[in-house]
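Notes from hallway chat w/ T.B., transcribed later so I don't forget. T.B. wanted the structure written out for a chain they're using in a teaching module, and asked if we could keep both sequence and structure tokens in one place. Agreed to drop them here.
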Amino acid sequence: MSDTSDRHNSRPFWNTRRAGRVRRRTFLGLAASTAALAAPGVLHAQPRRECVLTPDSGEGPFYFDPELVRSDIRAGAEGAVLDLAVEILRAGDCATLTDARFDLWHADAIGLYSGYARQPGTGEPSPSVVDETFLRGTQFTDADGRARFRTLWPSWYRGRTPHLHFKVFLGGDEAVASQLYLPDELNEEVFATFAPYKSRAERRDTFNSNDRFLTGTVEGAFCEVERSGGGYAATAAVIVRG
């Protein structure tokens, strides 16, 4: 645990010198991802869009701030390893944001959020997690505008497809609260391959195709994901107002 109250309230700054390179990388990434989608055996590419605002879907019912500044947020939770890098960009010119606060939290491999009672989970009796803080943490974006975490692949739970919640703060002000999503082909791969997901996979009732936040307009952002060292590595871009 770190006492970083001063940093939490410090004002981040935009790096406009990198904006042109980010725009080029965004457009090149779109072209490369489109080509990858057409290539045999590639299921995990997700094209990035131009720097358009990430929709705000709200924080949901399971947020709290444990004041834990840490990159590895697993805290003993078990499941498939997911290394996540999120880039914070400004709408319009794609400038990167340095020293912005990024909070991340999500469900574990059996669909539970740490710190809360009476959760739907994946439908079986669940252990108490009221006093836990696993899969929650804060990072501050680096000089390239990225926040990095080591976490676990989130499970589905009743009514929701796998997703990761996040907030971005500019100084002490909340800029966006939204969600990151994962390709369903890889959701299915994880649930068929790794414990403890495997024993619950047949009960899954919500997919990307019928999640209420993904029907119609996407309320959040999709990750680009690749297999990495027995686990997975994901990247995402979150676009906020400057």
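Follow-up for T.B.: The chain has one domain: 5-240. Might be a good example for the class.
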